[in-house]
Amino acid sequence: MDCQFSFGPNGAYFLKSDSRWAWSDHNLPETLRRVLADPNDPLYCKSPADVAFAMEPGVYSMCWTTKSNQEMYEADYLPPHYTKLAKFIADRSAHTTFGPNRSYFSTTKTGLSWQNLPLELETHIMSRIRIGRPHTIALGVDGAWIGLWDDGQLFFSAAQLKSYYPDLFELTQNEAETKKRKGIAYVAISPFAAGQWFATFGDGSSLFNLPRTMHEDVRTVAASIRPLQSGNGGGGGQSDADAMLIETAKFQMAVQQNIQMQNLFYPRYY
């Protein structure tokens, strides 16, 4: 499932599906706004793969396809304390999430990179690294986090999620509702404002708690999100679920071969 919601400073946001995307009309870094909005810019974005805002104003990372079909990544606006991330996303398509305390989590098809994650989350990642990898990590206020793994597992910081994102916490406990919607497939929580979140389900539906100023963009993009296809669907095309399993297997092979390589895993540092 191709879906992303990025929270930025001062109410900025970016969200996308595989066919539609939208962003806030204010508070975007000017260089990012030009790439997204100005068709005359030589690097104008034909299709975004990833846009992620750090908590510091003006700091972001981006992977996209230009109007001339050039695959691009943007790390020039990452300050020195994100040097490892800048190296990790070079020349590859990554999906990145930023959080408090200069934390981030980034994933590609063959590796992971992170920094300053909550200890409980980092422990989950490392203890399960040969079982499955997280495809989505959301970092929120005061150490709150939630993660979705390729093998279908959902983990989260229960105390913080219950305190700062109570309706999302209740959703994670509502097995009947999530099962009806074929499970949570993607989730984002705001590290700037407690209570703000966005979630997409396996059936393509979405739920969110966001300021009303975002609702029109969110509903427009959410309506274009395609459901995950079941593994036994007919028709000859490979399903998203099958593709996910194959990529997970490839990743596990990469772990076995490269677990000591610094460019595969970047441990937390202070």
Given the C-alpha coordinates, what overall shape results?
A: globular
Mean pLDDT: 87
Number of helices: 8
Strand order of the largest sheet: 1-2-3
Estimated share of beta-strand residues: 25-35%
Write down the domain tally. 1
Structural class: alpha+beta
Assembly type: single chain
Question: Strand-and-helix sequence, N→C?
Answer: EEEHEEEHEEEHEEEHHHEEEHH
- Please state the CA-atom Rg, rounded to the nearest Å: 18 Å
Topology:
Elements lengths: L3 E4 L5 E4 L4 E3 L6 H8 L7 E9 L6 E7 L4 E4 L8 H7 L5 E5 L3 E5 L4 E4 L3 H9 L6 E6 L5 E5 L4 E3 L1 H7 L1 H8 L1 H6 L3 E6 L7 E5 L4 E4 L2 H11 L17 H19 L12
Antiparallel strand pairs: 1-2, 2-3, 4-5, 5-6, 7-8, 8-9, 10-11, 11-12, 13-14, 14-15
Helix pairs in contact: 4-5
Keywords:
3-stranded antiparallel beta sheet, 270 residues, disordered C terminus, alpha+beta
Any overview of this molecule?
With 270 residues, this protein is an alpha+beta fold. It has one domain. It is built from 8 helices and 15 strands. The strands form 5 sheets. A 3-stranded antiparallel beta sheet has the order 1-2-3, covered by helices on one side. A 3-stranded antiparallel beta sheet has the order 4-5-6, covered by helices on one side. It has a 3-stranded antiparallel beta sheet with strand order 7-8-9, covered by helices on one side. Strand 7 and strand 8 form a beta hairpin. The chain is globular, with a radius of gyration of 18 Å. The C terminus is likely disordered.
